[in-house]
Specification:
With 108 residues, the protein is an alpha+beta fold. The protein is built from four helices and four strands. It is globular and about 45 Å long.
């Protein structure tokens, strides 16, 4: 929303956006004691993203690090490599493991 009101594509710190999408979302739902951050005793919900894509170039580290900006402004669901929910691998290599996708599509 800030980008719409200011017409500035650089509005909003990407690290703040990631925090809002993870721990901030869990806090809003009253679930921050069980999820939203990687801590001992919390559910292990993790998404890995394949950063070896053209739209993530250049990928820089150190003083000019831009990983968070790429995740917030460039990544999409097509870039998801793995999804772990409560410690269980549900998506690997972008393929759903937890359900028979063909059956779900046929029943839809």
């Amino acid at each position: 929303l800030a980008k719409v009101t200011t017409l500035d594509p650089t509005t909003g710190d990407p690290w703040d956006v990631l925090d809002l999408a993870t721990l901030g979302g869990a806090k809003a739902l009253g679930l921050d004691d069980v999820c939203g951050s990687l801590e001992v005793g919390k559910r292990a919900d993790i998404v890995t993203v394949d950063l070896r894509q053209l739209h993530f170039v250049p990928l820089m580290h150190g003083r000019f690090e831009n990983v968070a900006a790429h995740l917030v402004f460039s990544a999409s669901g097509h870039d998801v490599d793995q999804v772990w929910v409560d410690g269980r691998l549900l998506v690997d290599g972008g393929e759903v493991l937890s359900v028979d996708v063909a059956t779900v599509m046929a029943d839809a």
